[in-house]
Amino acid sequence: MTKLVIFDLDGTLLDTVEDLGNATNHALRTLGFPEHPMEAYKIFCGRGIWNLFRAALPPQENNEENVARMAALFLPYYDAHICDRTRPYPGIMDMMDRLREAGIRFALASNKYQDGAEKLIRIFFGEYGFIKVLGQRDGLPIKPDPAIVHQAMAAAPDVRLDEVVYVGDTNTDMQTGGNAGVRTIGVLWGFRTREELAAYHPWKIVSTAEELTKALIHGT
Questions:
Q1: What are the residue ranges in the chain where pLDDT is below 50?
Q2: pTM over cut 0.85
Q3: Do the Cβ atoms of 24 and 74 come closer than 8 Å?
């Protein structure tokens, strides 16, 4: 039985790729570097903003000085445009309602920077009472390190390991759940392919929010 579901954010609950891509392209354009098509950001995203910048920069310009310059341009732009195109994926809000009715608790473990993760959860899922919202924080490891999942679980000390499910859309997420020792579900509406997710042997791979709901409530 599932008592706690820990979600990834980008590509799992919310389709954020356009806003992330637009903000990154704004930073690249301002610095005089080539921009990327939105499809490329499905590969670039998922490993935190610092790795996003490193992936987006031209190889010959990929240094810590330019990463810092990217951050200085990206963050204020993204904060101002964080919800321009971002939306929950189809069926997500109905899923959240049904999970709440079933008494399942929610937490977030994301590689999105902490302020951005908190802002998006507050805007789109504020009514659902996430017991913990964890993003990328200075000095702490990011996924696939399992620490973030264990930190989320610490907010529900009455829940056993076998009552927790971690849900994400990338190979990083599948590794994270496996490293944390919890059941892991890969979703196919996000940034990566079935083959990429299956390579890490998650508990389940689902194609729709309805399938995810059934897996979380009934284990099927």
A1: none
A2: yes
A3: yes
